[in-house]
Design a protein that fits this description.
The protein is of the alpha/beta class and about 350 residues long. Helix content is about 45%, strand content about 15%. Helix 5 packs antiparallel against helix 11, helix 5 crosses helix 15 and helix 14 crosses helix 15.
Length: about 350
């Protein structure tokens, strides 16, 4: 009888798995770009491999690019919150007005390189944004390299060249900036851009070369116009809070060691380096390049001042000192740009 009971207990234990096996976890990672884009190729894929190795194989991942789990890019944050996905990579700005404080880094002419701005965003988030993102567990904040204008039929050389142009914009602040410059902004997630250009819904777009290449934007436009440091967009790599909280301490430690400021520094360099292939593709296509400069650039900077004023008011209305936050964001970009 004792032998039978022992065997039954052994079979039950085997079926349940060993303590080490019980800690294993597979996390679903969801994002909106193709698998060939730098977001997955140069960040998400190598990051998951690094975490899996550091965890001794206890943390595994399944990556779903191009919204393969369903929904649209603006819904990704809520998918992380609700557990539809365990981890998402998305833009807070895809839900306009929901996360107003982080928009300080998306103000026109605010940014420097991604190498300088990404860690600035992360340090700012650690200090000021915990309440704004309390529904999820943020793993890292970062941004892309300064975006530029990609236009079908004319270059943007003079301030007046923007008048009336329908330009795809990624976020509320850049919508406002484009309006201030006389353009007609059209907000949309970036995966919709190729069709919008093809069908004439927009005349051009502001995006970095990093995403222009995978979407083959160089085949749909003729001109690439740099308005120096015109904008960046902030990204969040966020995890379902309950999923993170439910992990054993050793696996939390692995994720924590591969999150935060050091990862943001790494991603800043990744996104700056990711500009080169898209730039080379546009050059190979025979497209034309130009840079706005001098008095025209000064006029553009002056024209967007109301966008700053509006953001400061929004922050003040949230109970924050908008001017102080703006000054600190600038200071952080300068700190990491040295």
């Amino acid at each position: 009888m004792r032998k039978i009971l022992w065997l039954t207990a052994a079979v039950t234990a085997f079926a349940a798995g060993s303590p080490a096996q019980a800690q294993d976890v597979t996390l679903k990672v969801h994002h909106f770009l193709p698998a060939v884009a730098p977001a997955q190729k140069d960040f998400i894929q190598p990051w998951t491999e690094r975490v899996t190795k550091a965890s001794g194989g206890k943390i595994k991942f399944q990556i779903y690019p191009s919204m393969q789990l369903g929904g649209g890019p603006p819904g990704l944050y809520d998918q992380a919150r609700d557990g539809v996905a365990d981890i998402v990579w998305t833009l807070p700005g895809y839900t306009a007005g929901r996360f107003p404080l982080v928009e300080v880094f998306e103000l026109p002419f605010m940014t420097g390189t991604a190498t300088a701005t990404a860690p600035a965003v992360q340090e700012f988030a650690d200090k000021y944004l915990k309440d704004e993102y309390k529904e999820v567990h943020p793993l890292v904040f970062h941004c892309h390299a300064p975006g530029l204008f990609h236009v079908k039929n004319k270059p943007i050389i003079y301030f007046s060249d923007l008048q009336g142009l329908k330009i795809r914009a990624p976020t509320r602040t850049i919508n406002d900036a484009l309006k201030a410059l006389g353009a007609a902004p059209v907000g949309m997630p970036v995966p919709q851009l190729p069709q919008a250009l093809s069908t004439g819904v927009v005349d051009g777009a502001v995006i970095p070369f990093e995403v222009a290449g995978p979407l083959k934007i160089q085949e749909l436009v003729k001109y690439h116009s740099i308005v120096p440091n015109f904008y960046t967009a902030v990204f969040i790599f966020a995890m379902n809070k309950a999923k993170y909280d439910g992990l054993p301490a050793d696996l939390k430690k692995v994720l924590d060691a591969n999150s935060g400021l050091e990862l943001a520094k790494e991603l800043g360099k990744v996104w700056d380096n990711a500009e080169k292939p898209g730039l080379e593709a546009a050059q190979k296509a025979g497209n034309r390049f130009n840079t706005m400069s001098g008095s025209e650039l000064d006029r553009a900077r002056t024209a967007v001042q109301p966008v700053y004023d509006n953001w400061i008011k929004t922050a003040n209305d949230k109970g924050q000192d908008g001017k102080k936050l703006l000054d600190e964001a600038r200071s952080l970009i300068a700190k990491y740009g040295k």
